[in-house]
Structures are given as C-alpha cells and as structure tokens.
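Comment thread on ticket #2218

A.B. wrote:
> Attaching the input chain for the structure job we discussed in standup.
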Amino acid sequence: MIWTDTGFLLSKIAFQENSIIANFYTKKHGKYAGIIYGATSKKIKNYLQNGNELYLEYHSKSDNTLGYFKIEILKPYTSKFFSEKIKLNCIVSTLDLIKILTVDGQENSKIYSLIDKLFILLNDENWKSDYVFWELDLLKYIGFDLNLIEYCKYDEIENKKKYFIESTSKKLKVPNFLVENIKEDIPDRDIYDSLNLISEYMKKNIFIPNNINFPTSRLNFINYFK
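C.D. wrote:
> Ran it. Output below, let me know if you need it in another format.
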C-alpha cells in the first residue's frame, strides 16, 4: 500500500538506532503513525519539530502492519515560536489534545484545517481569546459541542451579567466574552477561567469515561494565565 498526503507532526518517539515512529494528522487519512528511517540525520532532524507540516509518502505491506514515511518539509511552523514560551506551550498542549482526542485513520478535513488555522491565529494580537474559541471548534468537530449559550445561567450584579455553569458538585464561571462573543482586550484571568471550564468539560465527558489521563502539557499551558 502506498499513498501520498500532507500532515502535521503530532509526536515522535525513538525507534531503533537512527529512526523514529512519528504520528501525523493528515489531510486525507486522519491520524496516522509510521516509521521515519534516518530521522536522526542532520538533513532530516531539523524538519521533525512537532507542529511542522510535511509532505508524506507512506509505504506499508498491508493495512495491519506499521509502514514507513518518506518526507519533505512544507511549512516549518513551530520554529517561528521558539522564543515565545507561552505560544510554544500552546502548540505542545494543542498537539497532545489532538493526538488524544482523534481516531486513528479517520479523515476529518475540518480538524486538519483547524490545525492550520492555529498557526495563523498565533500571530494575531488577540490570539489568546481566539484560541479559546479555537478549542470550542475542536470539541465540536470531534462530536462534543459545548453550547455555552444553552447551558449557562447568569446572575445580575450591579447591572452586569455574571455567567456560570452549575453542576451537582460545582459552579464554574463562564467569562462574559465567551457568551457575548467579544475577542478584544480580554484579561488573562478570563482566559484561564475559560480554559479551565473547557478542561472540566473534557474531563467529565471524554477523559474520565474513557479512563484517559489528562495531559500535563495542558495544565502547564493553562497555568500561564493564572
């Protein structure tokens, strides 16, 4: 079996002496893993930063065996953010989420486009609030639409609405910008509360029911906004 595609590198682990097993999110084949031989060579090594977009040629003997990739670099996205620690942590956290939340071999062009959109919004002035809405889109595209307008309630205090979602065990703040669709001049504390709200939703509906550990990379990213 041979196919060609483009893909974003999600993760990589060492395999044998000079090779790695790489996990990509591809445009036409969804999440896919394969070996990259000679990946530690100077020619290839610098291309293999998680988040970079590559041209892929995949070879395997059958659908049930692990194949190998031949690669060419298309867009070296991640290196542009090496000097911006918070954005780099955002990329790491996001790629971990996509790897965990998506299904092997299941095409989803919306998610592929969403990854591309991530690297565009990271260059915007309002990237922090844009990213929160980006995560809500990710949830929707994998079948877990967190419809905040439907679920949240509010108290009116001094003529200002204070939104929240209440469960049997806790009451979570919903920052106003999420409900009122405002993206400019959002304080970091509101970003933190928003990402924490989405985290609690993911834990309750995805991670805990499927006995999956919540990624440390996301906790590290969220803590930047405390």
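A.B. wrote:
> Thanks. Noting for the ticket: The chain has two domains: 2-79, 124-225.
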